[in-house]
Specification:
The complex is a heterodimer of chains A (172) and B (277).
Chain A lengths: L1 H20 L17 H4 L7 H19 L4 H20 L13 H29 L5 H25 L8
Helix pairs in contact in A: 1-3, 3-4, 4-5, 5-6
Chain B lengths: L1 H9 L1 H22 L11 H17 L1 H17 L5 E3 L12 E3 L1 E11 L7 E4 L12 E4 L2 E9 L4 E5 L7 E5 L5 E6 L7 E8 L9 E4 L10 E7 L8 E8 L8 E7 L2 H14 L1
Antiparallel strand pairs in B: 1-2, 3-4, 3-14, 4-7, 5-6, 5-14, 6-7, 8-9, 8-11, 9-10, 10-13, 11-12, 12-13
Chain lengths: 172, 277
């Protein structure tokens, strides 16, 4: 338990640090901006209570907002992300399988499940992030372009990160 | 009552979602509509301090460019020194023994946080109210105008850059002094701006300089950019044109905050006039 808290805390600080000091300055063609920090919310343990999940998502969003000068924007997108995460996991994962697979990582769940999980959640998060940021439907083609290209970039980075920390384990 | 409780706990995810989503949207809308990022922003103690620390590392990477730009700026300043003074004489009488009074003070600050790829962009600079910066002051750099100060803490200030949906500065064509105002372009290109509401009598040329007018927060004649295309959109009674901004916002390092010594006096005078009406 305490090990899991420590790992998640470490992950939080590392991801926020990378997001704010590295990825914030990284933009492709002024369209594609990665938001790797959502990996923290994606990788929280399966058995986390809903309250805690929402609180953590909210705090993560606010932390990013503090550095991006957009109070509330990332927080609201992260809260939507948390809701979709709960729905997605309740639909695709059986409740009794949590004991030996505490976290939804690439090594635990396999490439197929993990990539679907990451792509769905990233698309939802980015869609609402860009929609709330512009707060209007004017310039919709531009928003959609930004949303699709940024999602591609984020998914790419998340899968790379997953492969870096991939730990092979014996299939039963 | 018990059924209600069971209902809520069964769908707790949804209700928690509502609570947090509404909270964050309230925070977002509040801070957005009043343009004062007071609650959470990068001029605050922890985030501001962290940015300053990281910025020290970045500073080393660009020492050469900074040196070049400083040398250029020094030469430029030597040439234009008198333009920052206000001539305290009546225009009809030419008096040789002219007395100058300082009108514009420049406070040099370093940009420690910057963005160009959002809908609304802000910069954080490392000088604040302790160094004499106040809300509403203009910010320029050696190539042109940057934005205006919207929030000040003790040691940092937040600058709303020209690349912001609500930014609007009074400008004029350098050659024939036709007045208009400059905004950021609609397609969010950080190198483009739009000059709007120029009178139909003006005959602008592609490549002509657009500079600040004397009506703005800035001294007259600070460059903004060059006209790049004369396409008129939604014109009618006035001309709109596209300009290429002279400042590369993604490479800002040092900026000057303009302290107009007479702005208080001018505002008071204009307020008086409104009251009399």
């Amino acid at each position: 338990m305490s090990k899991s808290i420590f790992i998640n805390l470490l992950r939080f600080f590392v991801l926020v640090f990378i997001q704010v000091f590295l990825l914030k300055n990284m933009t492709l063609y002024n369209l594609s901006t990665p938001f790797l920090y959502i990996l923290f919310i994606l990788l929280l343990p399966f058995e986390i209570p809903n309250v805690l999940l929402f609180v953590l998502a909210f705090i993560t969003g606010l932390t990013i907002d503090a550095f991006y000068d957009t109070p509330g924007l990332h927080a609201s997108a992260c809260v939507i992300l948390a809701l979709v995460r709960i729905l997605f996991i309740s639909v695709t994962v059986q409740k009794d399988g949590f004991d030996n697979e505490p976290e939804p990582t690439l090594s635990n769940k396999g490439f197929r499940w993990f990539s679907t999980y990451v792509i769905t959640l990233t698309l939802v998060h980015h869609f609402f992030l860009f929609l709330i940021e512009s707060f209007s439907l004017s310039g919709l083609p531009y928003i959609i372009g930004r949303f699709l290209l940024s999602s591609l970039f984020t998914v790419f980075l998340i899968l790379i990160t997953g492969l870096i920390f991939f730990r092979r384990k014996e299939r039963k | 009552m018990r059924n209600l409780w069971i209902f809520i706990s069964k769908y707790n995810a949804f209700f928690l979602f509502l609570i947090f989503e509404v909270t964050s949207l309230i925070i977002y809308v509040k801070n957005n509509s009043f343009q004062r990022a007071e609650f959470i922003n990068s001029a605050r103690g922890v985030t501001g301090g962290l940015y300053a620390r990281i910025d020290e590392f970045y500073g080393y990477l660009s020492l050469k460019e900074v040196n070049d730009s400083l040398a250029r700026e020094n030469a430029h300043l030597r040439n234009t020194l008198k333009s920052s003074f206000y001539a305290d004489t009546v225009t009809k009488h030419k008096v040789d023994d002219t007395v100058y009074k300082q009108q514009y003070d420049y406070i040099v600050a370093r940009v420690i946080n910057n963005s160009v790829n959002h809908n609304n962009n802000y910069l954080t600079i490392n000088k604040g109210s302790k160094q004499g910066i106040a809300k509403g002051m203009g910010v320029i750099c050696n190539k042109g105008i940057v934005g205006k100060v919207v929030f000040v803490s003790d040691h940092f200030s937040l600058v709303q850059s020209l690349l912001h949906k609500d930014s609007q500065f009074s400008a004029m064509l350098a050659d024939n002094k036709e007045i208009g105002h400059v905004e950021w372009s609609d397609d969010m290109d950080p190198h483009k701006g739009i000059l709007k509401d120029v009178s139909n009598n003006a005959r602008p040329k592609v490549g002509e300089w657009v500079v600040t007018s004397g009506y703005s927060l800035f001294p007259e004649g600070v460059p903004i950019g060059k006209i790049s295309s004369l396409r008129t959109k939604g014109g009618g009674y006035s001309l709109n044109m596209e300009i290429t901004l002279s400042v590369d916002f993604s490479k800002l390092e040092y900026v000057n905050v303009v302290d107009n010594k007479f702005s208080k006096e001018q505002e008071a005078l204009e307020a008086q006039q409104k009251k009399d009406e």
